[in-house]
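Morning. Coffee machine broken again, so started the prediction first thing and wrote up yesterday's gels while waiting. Chain of 153 residues, entered below exactly as on the submission form.
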Amino acid sequence: MAQAQQKRSELDAKAKQGETVVPGGTGGKSLEAQQHLAEGRSKGGQTRKEQLGTEGYQELGSKGGQTRKEQLGTEGYQELGSKGGQARKEQLGTEGYKEMGSKGGEARKEEMGSEGYKEMGRKGGLSTTEKSGQERVEEEGIEIDESKYRTKT
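Came back before lunch.
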């Protein structure tokens, strides 16, 4: 019990220094304020999703992501994603992060079908630190059947 209180005190101190310690709590000046902000934002998002429907809400998020990408440029957007991934890894721990990735891969494999997932992996396996898989496909004339990528309907 004392350990949990100590952890809360540490998080509260960080929040008072301007650090976001609760996902969705950005701007809160204390741990409690960040928790309230995160809860309110979550409820607001759920309400908006109910208003727009799942597809409309996804489209809204996609448009927001594109706008942010245009604002930051490709490099800045990639850095933002990397920081987000690191933050999530810290939240879940190494094992939890691996499990999340595994579940995501399995879900994608189920959506695409085994053949499409293998073809996508073939292309991804071509990437190097200097070039993306797509660049190597184009430069070296490697055949990748992207029609296999399509999500099953």
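The two ends are 50 Å apart (CA to CA). Going to sketch it on the whiteboard this afternoon.
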